[in-house]
Amino acid sequence: MKKQWKYKPVDTPAVNLLRDELGVNATMAKLLFLRGIKSKEQADKFFNPSFDDLHDPFLLKDMDLGITRLNQAIDNNERILLYGDYDVDGVTSVSLLYTFLKRFTENLDFYIPDRYKEGYGLTLEGIDFAKQNNVKLLIAMDCGTTAAPQITVAKEKGIDVIVLDHHLPVEEIPPTVALINPKQADCSYPFTDLSGCGVTFKFAQAYAAHKGMPKRALLSLLDFVATSIACDYVPIVGENRILATFGLHQINQRTRVGFKALIARTNYTYPFTVSDIVFGIGPYINAAGRLSDGKEAVRLLLAEDWLVASEYANILRVRNTQRRVFDRENLEEAIKIWESNPHHLDVPIVVLFQSNWHKGVLGIVASRMVKHYHKPAVIMCESNGEIVASARSTSTIDVHERLKQSEHLFKSFGGHPNAAGFSMEPQNLAELTKNLIESMKGVSIAQQTPTLDIDAELELKDITPEFMEALRKLEPMGPGNPNPLFVCEDVEVVGPIRYVEKNSIRLRVAKGKSKQFKAVGFRKGDYIQQINSQQFCMCFKIIESVWKGKKQLQLQLKDVFEGDIHAERVIATEEQDDKV
């Protein structure tokens, strides 16, 4: 699919001023400017995140009410149930709060819903479990904001509920003791992009302050938070940058035995980065809830003995292997079905249902369909007589908002602009499909064309050890602070191009007398004709890959261009602004 090359605009005089003030090269000054760094003071905070710069947790709406109720439960030795969803964010939230609260009370238990029997979010089955086990306080994490009916039932059963969440609220406010969610319209908390586990950490931080504990007593919990930030794709800016920085340090220096056992079963090596967490740790934790029991992942992260942790890590490795099989099979079928429609290129949103698809990989298949077609994707299957779905989207289209227009069709619903889920009765499928296609009217072609947001032009000769040392200071990198995307013109292939699995290629590139660099093009086998016998313009990222246990520098090929790239710098044309 043809991509838009879009150069990020900068204020050149301001970049030059920043370069002189910081004493960095022009490229690094531009990268910092594009990340909102406009002064030495801002640069100091960016390069040196401080735990002391975390916001006061009591700025979160209802935090005081939640801490008062938690303190009452602990003082009265009431039974407390920690409830979390079965994905990485929910699992790390439960694990964090359990690890923190067990120093204050032994009257704790945790609950992760069964994806197949219950579905996602706060469930009536979970509330029944709480009642049967004499729970007086249920703390719902990474869910609960949209669970007004379930929380009403809990209240009727004599169970108080505190919600720690970050999903978008709906009109019906649940009858909680405290609803702690920075995305509430009337919440004045200065940072709204916390992960679910990040909100849980703020709750622990507030209780620690209530008990007079020093701030840094919570540092050991940040490996949980960093994992959730990475896997939930929240922006790694502001408070998240602080939490991710210290969390990565925790993972790399003194992480708990559960993470160590899990890392030992991956192909990744220390030091871990955000990307390593996403691709190395996250799939294992998610696999437990996708295929079996999410409690396995919690037990792994709570393990204090190496043999116990190793046993659960082995279980998760087997689950992840099984998950890959279902993922591949369901994706291949989804592509085949979608492309069997001769008009699929003209349909602005992918909506697919197969009763026998595996519920545990719907989100993965949806994500891959979005990447493949650059359109929102809603992937559905049947479970317990209902249709269940995972939806994913591009960065330019809010799939949650489009689904919300059909909220009257759903039995349950929740999510973010880029990811959502729901369940509904089968007879509503046709109406939903019609509504979704209708909701996409007015979306421009440009919104549905993949965009490469280019940070800067970079000559290969300038990729030096000194430049790489400066580039690493941008870490932790991820959403909101992405690994920079560079362009270099007049690049040539040096030596043969080697095909590898999944239509990928490996090659060496150089420009003039520059050093030769190894490059990899994941799923870029179709580019061979463009780069094999001529100079070309290369769009790339600089990455460190793992080979035989060692990390090595590589260029990751993102796209190539033939012709005069200078004539293509502005990619907003009348044709692309046409409506579909």
Describe the structure.
The chain is α/β, with parallel strands linked by helices and 580 residues long. Among the domains are: 57-215, inorganic pyrophosphatase (n-terminal core) (Alpha-Beta Complex), CATH 3.90.1640; 341-448, Diaminopimelate Epimerase, Chain A, domain 1; 451-568, OB fold (Dihydrolipoamide Acetyltransferase, E2P) (Beta Barrel), CATH 2.40.50.460. 39% of the residues lie in helices and 19% in strands. The chain has 20 helices and 19 strands. A hairpin with a 6-residue loop joins strand 16 and strand 17. Helix 12 (274-291) crosses helix 14 (306-339) and helix 13 packs antiparallel against helix 14 (306-339). The longest helix is centred in the middle third of the chain and has 34 residues, at 306-339. Residues 566-580 have low confidence and may be disordered.
Short description:
The chain has 580 residues and is an alpha/beta fold. It has 20 helices and 19 strands. Strands 3-2-4-5-6 form a 5-stranded parallel β-sheet, sandwiched between helices. Strands 7-8-9-11-10 form a 5-stranded mixed β-sheet, with helices on both faces.
Key descriptive features of the protein:
OB fold (Dihydrolipoamide Acetyltransferase, E2P); 20 helices; Diaminopimelate Epimerase, Chain A, domain 1; alpha/beta; 580 residues; five-stranded mixed sheet; 19 strands; 39% helix; inorganic pyrophosphatase (n-terminal core); five-stranded parallel sheet; single chain
